[in-house]
Amino acid sequence: MAAFTQFPMPNERVITSGTTTIAVMPEINLVSHFQVGDWQVLYRASETGNVKRWGIPLMIPNFGRLKDGLFEEKGTTLPMHGFGRNLPWSVAEHTETSIRLQLTSSEATRASYPYDFVFTSEIVAGEGSLTYTLTMENKSDETMPIAPGFHPYFAQDQGEKSHVVVNGLEGFDASTIHWDTNPPDNHYPFAQQASFEFPQQGTLRIAEVPHAGHYLLKEMQVWSEPITAPDHEFICFEPIVTHENGLNRPQDRLNIAPHTQQQITLRLQAQPR
């Protein structure tokens, strides 16, 4: 492990509850650490320091690529996975067990995404759990389309990836994948929850908590890197509203009415072996 990536780093804000420790890097809204007991659930790019391969970044306002990078509705361009992970978020509140971050629209965001908004991320530590609530407030006078996603990097030794047992993700079977040379980059239907047994580590449950009886995370993207990549000992199981180019599909994205808000709550529950 490179010394400069040792936990906790100076720019990590830490929250705890019992045996659970979570950390966040506010400047890029990155959940950088989630540990329950001895199990470090999230991958940490300890050798390379590459924050693009680390923790749980938030992909907002769009998950994945847009076709030709174009946001068709406004004729602007947006980068892959949006701008949320590239802009500084402010810390609105930090307690022993929770932290709340905010990003407000600005000249930097309006150039590519011409809406007035406030995005709020609240991360709460529980015993064995991480609860992440994303609030998307549309302060504009027009409907605001949005298609966010969560991009967790779960630590997993390369040689054990084919032994990960997944329940609740129809069509996915880790044992059939050539992880070294042809890792997955596919989306699957997400039926509100799924469980993952990580060899030698424990069982993780990923679930969406409904708001007013509604679920918004409809898919889960599964992705990893080949063994030749500098960072590869992870598997990403990514709960998302919809897959790439979704911001250009009105029927798949979220469409937030003027001066209203929508919330998504994701909960990770980890039980070490």
Automatic annotation (TrEMBL):
Gene3D superfamilies recorded: 2.70.98.10
InterPro entries membership: Aldose_1/G6P_1-epimerase (IPR008183), Gal_mutarotase_sf_dom (IPR011013), GH-type_carb-bd (IPR014718)
Coiled coil ranges: none
Domain of life assignment: Bacteria
PANTHER family on file: APOSPORY-ASSOCIATED PROTEIN C-RELATED, GLUCOSE-6-PHOSPHATE 1-EPIMERASE
Stated name of the protein: Aldose 1-epimerase
Organism: Ktedonobacter robiniae
